[in-house]
Amino acid sequence: MTTRTSPVNAASSGTFKLGGDLPIHRLGYGAMRITGKGIWGEPKDLEAARKVLRRAVELGVNFIDTADSYGPEVSERLIGEALAPYYAKGVVIATKAGLTRQGPDRWLPVGRPEYLHQQVEMSLRLLKLERLDLWQLHRIDPKVPVEESLGVIKRLQEQGKIRHVGLSEVKPHEIDQARKVIDIVSVQNQYNLSDRQHEDVLQYCEKHNIAFIPWFPVASGKLAQPGGKLDTAAKRHKATVSQLSLAWLLHHSPVMLPIPGTTSIEHLEENIAAADVQLSAAEWKEIEDSAK
Question: What is the pLDDT of residue 1?
Fold first, then answer.
């Protein structure tokens, strides 16, 4: 099968105004995996990781998502090394804090105000920025009222260190609660064609023009298996299952900002080419129905 590859540009995915004032291409890049195994430590090839980041920008990606806990600190540092200064390219870096690391694949939410303040300062240093365009609370800490966690973030925003604020893995009532403290411009939840448990959150975001950033954006499980409906449709359109999964997200909602991640330039180019995949309304419906 001949799959779609670049030179398709991420601009083909369309544009979304993050927070109403930051125009970004809807197909971005997630920088979680430019780290070691278990999202822990350094990647096997540091220069290869930097090359993937640079190639993403060359392909029109101007929205890159990371977090202080990826490594920890490794992903942010590599982005700073590879891409600063961002203003020359118009690249928006989104980062997160609120999940601590105890080892490979181990995560623990911490939302204490003093800790979040410290992590914002660290992110600014590692990313080589004076202001974070988008800072996101990685998880709401059940031990800390969200009003306390976001109170310190609001003060940092007022100081000019944060431009916009988002949340991750939340439900509509939690977004409402957070919006009483600070304006929320994005929500990052797990979501893909085969896992739509957060459809209610997506609908909330559409209603309020809040960006919805799906992590784990590629369909998996039975739906994506060889010979399945998604695989068959992908072959019919000379695409891959990953490309069709990303194209469906872009089709499904105008507030959707997929951020597929990879450590391979070849895979990166394949992902960006998903912006050029077009199906009819009937074909998309058939694929959606098969996922139910």
Answer: 40
